[in-house]
Write a structure and sequence with these properties.
Distance between the termini: 80 Å
Low-confidence stretches: 1-26, 364-375, 442-474, 600-639
Helix content: 40-55%
Number of helices: 26
Largest sheet: 7 strands, parallel
Strand order of the largest sheet: 14-13-15-16-17-19-18
C-alpha cells in the first residue's frame, strides 16, 4: 500500500502540461466558506435544508465571535425559529415542533436514496479540511481518511474525492472497506453541491395575518399540517410581492406580510373525547371510522355547546397569545392585523367576530343587529317610543333591564309582567309592537329595504324611520341567531380584514334561520370581509345573495395573477357568445322566411302594401340581432353599482377563482382538490396582498383587471 501511495509523485513528468495549472496553484490554499444547515424529518425521511444566506451569515458571525460557547439565540426564518447556537438546535417560536439539529457545514457526500448531498459532522469536516489544506499546499494527494463510523474518504485531487461506505467489515481474507463499498462523490463547499439556498425574507413586517384551519389535522390533499400549508402560503406571498410590488419594494415602501398558523384541532382532541369515541366506535371499516372521528366530527363538535366553548376559547386565546408574543419579539411593529379562516375555521372566526365588542366611541358607526354592539342608542329609541305612548314614567324600568329596541320587539306579555309593568301600559306596548310588525309585513317585499335609519350608504327607506327598525326584527334576523350558546372571548386587537377561504358561513347562517343579512350590518371590530372560493369547492357558499336576494348577479371573478383570464375561459365565453349570435341570426332568418311565405298568398292588389310593410318588419326583425350584444354590456355597467351592503365597506364580498383547464373536464373529480387548493393559489394570495396593502395606500405595479 505504501508503494501505491508513492506512485503519484512519479507521474507528473509525462503529464506536465496538464498539471501545470495545479502546480502553479499548489501553494494557493483558500479556506472553505461554511454554510449553515438544519435537519428536517418528513414522513421518516431525513434531509438537510440550508438556511438563507442572511441567516447563515448571522449564524457564522455569532459562531466566529465565540458566542457559541455561551447561551446565544439567533432568530432565523423571519423570526419564526430561534437557533440555540451552543446546543446546535433550531426551535420553533410560535408553535410546538420538535427541535431540529443545526450544523455548520463545509464538506458533503452524496446520499444513497435521493442523491442529495449530506453534510459531514463538524468535527470530521475539520479533519477533512486540514487534510485538504496539506494536500493542496504540498501537492500530495491520494490522501486517505477514516471517519468515526469506519467509512473511508480518499482525496485523489481537488476535483475527485470519493467516499466509500463499507458494505461489511473486513474479513479473514484481508478485504478492505474500499474494496467492498460503492464509491460516492465528496464535495467541498456549498457552492459545489448545487444546493437550493432560499431567498432571505425582508426584515420589515407590514402586516400580520393569523390563519385558522378547518376540520381535521390535515389541511390539503397531501395530508399536511396547517403549519406546512401556511408556510406554502407565505412563500407564495413572497414571490407575489417580488412580481407585483417590485417598485414599492425597491423604494423600500413595503417589507412583507407575516402569516402565522392557529391550531385548535389538537387542543380539542386532547380533552379525552377520542377515548370516549373509540369506546363506542364499531370495529368494522376501521380506517374510515377513524378518519370520520378525526375530521368530519369536528363539525358536530362545534355545534355542541360543550366543545364549541373549547374551540372558541382555544382559537381566541391562541391568537391573543401569538399576537402578544409577536409584539414582544417585534417591538417596533406598527402595522395592522388581519385574520383568515379555511372551511370550518372561517365559521369559527365569523362567530367570534360577530360577538366582539366595539369601543364605545365606535358605537355610532358600528353594525346594526349585532347582539354584541352597544345598545345605548337602542335604549334611547325605547325612551322615544315610551314617550310617544305617554309612558315616560317607565323609562327607568326599561333602562334598568337594559332593554333596547330589538329586545323590546322580542318582548312578550309575560316579560312585561315580570318587569312590573301594569296591565294598561302593557296593552299599549303590545299593541304598538303588533301594529309595527303588521306594517313591516306589508312592506317586506320592497328590495333594498333598510334595517336601520342611521346607516349612511345604500338606499334607506325614508318614508317611515320607525318602521325601518322593525324591519330588522321581522325581515332581517340577527346574524348571531342560532349560534351555539357559548361565552365568546374578546380579541386583543381589531382585525383589519377577514378572509374566508372555501367557507360554509352562508350555509350555516341559513340553517340557523338567518335568511337575509341586513345591508347595513358590519362586523363590530372588523370592517373588511372577503369570501373567496373555488367554483368546484363543495363546502363553499356565497354571502352576497343573502344581502341582495332580489338581484341575480355573479361573484367577482378573481383575475389571474399574470393579469389575464385563463385561455379556456376566454374560449368558453367566445363560444357562448358565438352560439347566441348564431341562434339569434338563425331565428331572425326563419321569421323573415316564414313571414314572406305566409304573405305570398295575398291578392295582387295588396302586394304593394305588403312590400312596404315588409321593410319595416324586416328591419324590426333585424333589431334582435343587435340586442343580444347589448344586455351583456348593460349588465357589465350595472354590476359595479350593486349595493352589497356594509359587510365589506360597501365593496364586493364574493370572489371566485378561475378553474384550471384540466379541472374543467370533470367538476366532481376535482371537487376535493377545489376545497384544498387555496394554500398554493397565486390568485388567492395576490388578492390578499392587494387588499392588505390597499389599506396602506400601496397598489400593485400593474393594476389587475377586474373580473366582472
Amino acid at each position: 500500500m505504501s508503494a501505491r501511495e508513492q506512485q503519484p509523485p512519479a507521474q507528473p513528468p509525462p503529464a506536465a502540461p496538464a498539471e501545470a495549472a495545479e502546480l502553479e496553484g499548489a501553494n494557493r490554499y483558500e479556506a472553505v466558506v461554511p454554510h449553515w444547515f438544519y435537519r428536517k424529518v418528513t414522513d421518516s425521511r431525513e434531509r438537510w435544508v440550508p438556511f438563507s444566506t442572511q441567516d447563515s451569515e448571522r449564524l457564522e458571525e455569532a459562531h466566529c465571535s465565540g458566542k457559541d460557547k455561551e447561551e446565544v439565540v439567533v432568530p432565523t426564518s423571519g423570526g419564526r425559529y430561534d437557533v440555540h447556537l451552543r446546543q446546535r438546535q433550531r426551535v420553533a417560536v410560535y408553535w410546538e415542533e420538535e427541535a431540529a439539529e443545526v450544523r455548520r457545514c463545509t464538506w458533503f457526500y452524496k446520499g444513497d436514496k435521493d442523491n442529495k448531498y449530506i453534510p459531514y459532522s463538524e468535527s470530521f469536516s475539520e479533519e477533512l479540511e486540514e487534510a485538504y489544506m496539506i494536500a493542496v499546499t504540498l501537492d500530495e494527494w491520494k490522501t486517505k481518511l477514516e471517519s468515526p463510523s469506519r467509512e473511508i474518504i480518499i482525496l485523489h485531487n481537488p476535483k475527485l474525492m470519493v467516499h466509500y461506505h463499507p458494505a461489511a467489515s473486513s474479513d479473514d481474507w484481508g478485504s478492505t472497506p474500499t474494496e467492498q463499498g460503492r464509491p460516492r462523490t465528496v464535495k467541498r463547499g456549498v457552492e459545489n453541491i448545487a444546493a437550493e439556498i432560499p431567498n432571505g425574507e425582508p426584515l420589515q413586517i407590514d402586516h400580520l395575518v393569523f390563519v385558522v384551519h378547518g376540520i381535521g389535522p390535515a389541511c390539503d390533499i397531501r395530508f399536511r399540517s396547517i403549519i406546512q400549508c401556511v408556510n406554502d402560503f407565505r412563500n407564495v406571498s413572497l414571490s407575489m410581492l417580488q412580481a407585483h410590488f417590485k417598485k414599492a419594494q425597491e423604494q423600500q415602501q413595503i417589507g412583507r406580510v407575516e402569516f402565522l398558523p392557529v391550531n385548535w384541532h389538537s387542543s380539542l382532541h386532547s380533552t379525552g373525547v377520542d377515548v370516549d369515541l373509540e369506546r363506542i366506535t364499531l370495529p368494522s371499516i376501521n380506517r374510515l371510522r377513524h378518519f370520520i372521528n378525526d375530521t368530519i366530527l369536528d363539525v358536530f363538535f362545534y355545534n355542541s355547546s360543550t366543545y364549541c366553548q373549547t374551540i372558541v376559547d382555544t382559537v381566541a386565546s391562541e391568537m391573543n397569545r401569538l399576537y402578544q408574543l409577536f409584539l414582544q419579539r417585534n417591538p417596533h411593529f406598527s402595522g395592522g392585523v388581519s385574520i383568515a379562516g379555511h372551511s370550518l375555521g372561517s365559521l369559527i372566526l365569523f362567530d367570534l367576530l360577530t360577538n366582539q365588542k366595539a369601543a364605545p366611541e365606535e358605537d355610532e358607526h358600528s353594525e346594526v343587529g349585532s347582539r354584541t354592539t352597544s345598545s345605548n342608542r337602542g335604549i334611547g329609541d325605547v325612551k322615544e317610543i315610551l314617550k310617544k305612548l305617554e309612558l315616560s314614567e317607565y323609562c327607568d324600568v326599561f333602562e334598568k333591564e337594559k332593554m333596547d329596541r330589538q329586545a323590546l320587539f322580542l318582548c312578550t306579555e309575560e316579560n312585561l309582567k315580570e318587569m312590573g309593568i301594569p296591565l294598561g301600559p302593557r296593552m299599549k306596548i303590545l299593541h304598538y309592537i303588533s301594529s309595527k310588525r303588521e306594517m313591516q309585513d306589508q312592506s317586506t317585499a320592497a328590495p333594498g329595504h333598510s334595517g336601520e335609519h342611521r346607516a349612511q350608504p345604500g338606499p334607506p327607506s325614508q318614508h317611515n324611520p320607525d318602521s325601518t327598525d322593525e324591519g330588522r326584527n321581522c325581515q332581517y334576523r340577527d346574524v348571531a341567531l342560532g349560534q351555539v350558546s357559548a361565552n365568546y372571548p374578546q380579541l386583543d386587537y381589531k382585525p383589519t380584514i377577514f378572509f374566508a377561504f372555501g367557507s360554509p358561513i352562508g350555509m350555516f347562517l341559513t340553517v340557523r334561520g338567518v335568511k337575509r343579512i341586513n345591508p347595513n350590518y358590519s362586523l363590530p371590530t372588523c370592517k373588511g370581509f372577503f369570501n373567496i372560493f373555488h367554483p368546484y369547492d363543495p363546502v363553499a357558499y356565497r354571502i352576497e345573495p343573502m344581502i341582495v336576494p332580489d338581484v341575480e348577479f355573479e361573484p367577482m371573478l378573481l383575475p389571474h395573477h399574470k393579469g389575464r383570464k385563463r385561455m379556456h375561459l376566454e374560449l368558453k365565453e367566445g363560444l357562448t357568445r358565438m352560439s347566441v349570435d348564431l341562434k339569434n341570426n338563425l331565428l331572425g332568418s326563419l321569421r323573415v322566411a316564414w313571414q314572406s311565405f305566409t304573405r305570398a298568398q295575398l291578392p295582387a292588389l295588396e302586394a304593394a302594401t305588403t312590400d312596404t310593410e315588409a321593410e319595416p318588419e324586416a328591419g324590426a326583425e333585424k333589431e334582435p340581432e343587435t340586442k343580444p350584444d347589448e344586455p351583456p354590456a348593460a349588465a357589465k355597467e350595472e354590476t359595479p353599482p350593486i349595493n352589497v351592503g356594509m359587510l365589506n365597506r360597501g365593496n364586493r364580498i364574493d370572489y371566485v377563482l378561475q378553474e384550471k383547464p384540466i379541472e374543467s373536464f370533470n367538476e366532481y373529480l376535482f371537487a376535493l382538490q377545489g376545497h384544498l387548493c387555496y394554500w398554493e393559489s397565486e390568485d388567492t394570495v395576490l388578492l390578499v396582498l392587494k387588499e392588505i396593502y390597499q389599506t396602506q395606500g400601496i397598489t400593485p405595479d400593474q393594476p389587475l383587471p377586474g373580473g366582472q
